[in-house]
Amino acid sequence: MATPFLSLNHIAFHVTNGVALLQKLVNKFQFHLFAMRITETAQQFAVKKGAAIFVVNEKPKSGVATAQQWALWQANRLGLNQECTDLSCIPFNDALPRACPELDLLYDICPSCSVDTASNVSFEVEDVGSLCKQLHAHGCQILIPPTEIHDDSGCVIYSVIKSIVGNISHTLIDRSRYKGEFLPGFQVIDSPAIPSGLTEITHFDHVTYACPQGSSTQILKWYEKCFGFQRFQLHQEESAEGGFVISDDGIGLRLSAMQYWKCSKMALTLVAPSKVPDCRFVLAESLPGQGRNQVDTFLEQHGGAGIQHVALYTPDIIATARAFYCAGVQFVTPPPAYYTEPGKEEEIRAVGQDLQLLSQLGVLLDTDVSNKGEGRGCRGMVENRRHLMQIFTKPIFSEETFFLELIQRQGASGFGEGNIRALWHAVQAFIDQKEHVQSS
Ligand SMILES: O=C(O)C(=O)Cc1ccc(O)cc1
Ligand SMILES: [Fe+2]
């Protein structure tokens, strides 16, 4: 099946204290608050930087709706008999967790997750109705059936479907008949000039899911069947069945990745749409019998699978990381040996970067040779000039769950093994130290 997606629209959080997360995103990560929706029962904030949009939803104090409340609410929405409280009479109604009618949340459902979480990835699509029909036929749970919302700037149709991964849901939005800045129901905040600051983020590079052991193959198949995603080789040594496995040096990690091709509205009308991958999805699972590790810590503290991190693309990682540091963002520290590994200095120098600068900030640099022959503008370049740089924040919430990544790619479309190892050790050192402090 060809991908029905135009592009990623936003990623949404559900947290107990919406204003606290909003402040963190605005003051530390220098996102711009551009739209919000405050009602008696809901608080939703939209922030952006470049094309990267986060929606912060504050969780209701009252909890999740009862089955009966939900059925009535759905019946009401669909114009069915108000007395209809039998769930089976409503199309697409077998879904759990349920949307909270008393919460009056738009474009999302509140996930059944007791801790703060990033749980929704929302895509722009061309035709919500027919996509939902297809998904329903595939056995996909539809949490909110296609719903139309208007305001003065036009209308959108959206639907929310449940992913097979943990608490993740996907909102599908057709905003082709909407002229406003974000989505109907949100009040756009006037600001004459959006300050760009010293930091630049252009888009979401990838989203990494923490998955239970042995689940990746099924997840890949589900996204392929439902959304037309394709497997993407994140490392040259990856196998088709097992993904990319690292199982030494205290690491027990299996990674695999998938992507879809972004379509511009223009491209849809052409015979051969231009092939540009949009945000990619990385699946991370731990390996059996390898001891404590960050993926299992995530699953435990999050209460199941979910979004472990989101990578923000920056064209200048040094400037952005430095500005984030100054604003109080905390990053995990790479293992000290990372920068003194044999050949690291040469590797860094060969691509014109400064070892001192990278190590002061904790930015990782790795070369990636997995994209041979992809023709992404790097033909003729010396192989080792394709590189990527990454840096990872400490967890954003009080649990060791969700964190953010900054990434800058120079011709490298995959991931470097050295960086994955360093990330693993950096995150692990942070978790172990936190647990040590808590137990002493
Ligand atoms: O390197 C990256 O940015 C990844 O996304 C791969 C990855 C995913 C999960 C981990 O716990 C460690 C590494
Ligand atoms: Fe990542």
Automatic annotation (TrEMBL):
The keyword Repeat applies. Fe cation binds at H206, H309, E405. It catalyses: 3-(4-hydroxyphenyl)pyruvate + O2 = homogentisate + CO2. Residues 7-175, 203-364 form the VOC domain. Pfam families: Glyoxalase. Binds 1 Fe cation per subunit. Gene3D superfamilies: 2,3-Dihydroxybiphenyl 1,2-Dioxygenase, domain 1 (3.10.180.10). GO terms for molecular function: 4-hydroxyphenylpyruvate dioxygenase activity; metal ion binding. One of its GO terms (biological process) is aromatic amino acid metabolic process. Its cofactor is Fe cation. Keywords: Iron, Metal-binding, Repeat. It comes from the Eukaryota. Belongs to the 4HPPD family. PANTHER family: 4-HYDROXYPHENYLPYRUVATE DIOXYGENASE, 4-HYDROXYPHENYLPYRUVATE DIOXYGENASE-LIKE PROTEIN. Catalyzes the conversion of 4-hydroxyphenylpyruvic acid to homogentisic acid, one of the steps in tyrosine catabolism. This is 4-hydroxyphenylpyruvate dioxygenase. It comes from Geotrypetes seraphini.
